[in-house]
Amino acid sequence: MLKRAYAANGMVTDGWISLDPADIGLIESVYKRTIRDGEERLMFAVLENAVEYFQKYVLARNPGGKQRFQEAEEWFLEKDSEALYSFENICETLGLHPDHIRKGLLVWKEARLKLSSVERQRAVRPKLARSRVKQPSIRLSKTA
Hints:
There is one protein chain. This protein has 5 helices and 2 strands, in the order H-E-E-H-H-H-H. By secondary structure, the chain is mainly alpha-helical. It has one domain. A hairpin with a 2-residue loop joins strand 1 (about 10-15) and strand 2 (about 15-20). Helix 2 (about 25-55) crosses helix 3 (about 65-75) and helix 2 (about 25-55) crosses helix 4.
């Protein structure tokens, strides 16, 4: 695409493309998309990292893990932030619906907490003692 844009609007001589330096619109149109792609990749990486922390540390018991989870959850739940890399701004840039993602994360969190609670109850519940049934000492045999 880059070569095509240059070739269409520039002059090709001896395999080199020369551009009119006054045509700033051409230069902006060619490089703007590349910059935009990089920004979107960075925003997606920020979103991906927040989801990873949210899911990885949801059951954390140590202070560091709890803090990471809390920061990720607060970032997802924050509304009307003016920050460039706020959750809602990232979603808008990437064409995602923030409320849909929030709802999905909160539903996932509740399910994970319930599952963890059930697992903990099973672990705490006293196990039934197994008793071995002794084999009878009398052996029956067929006698003729």
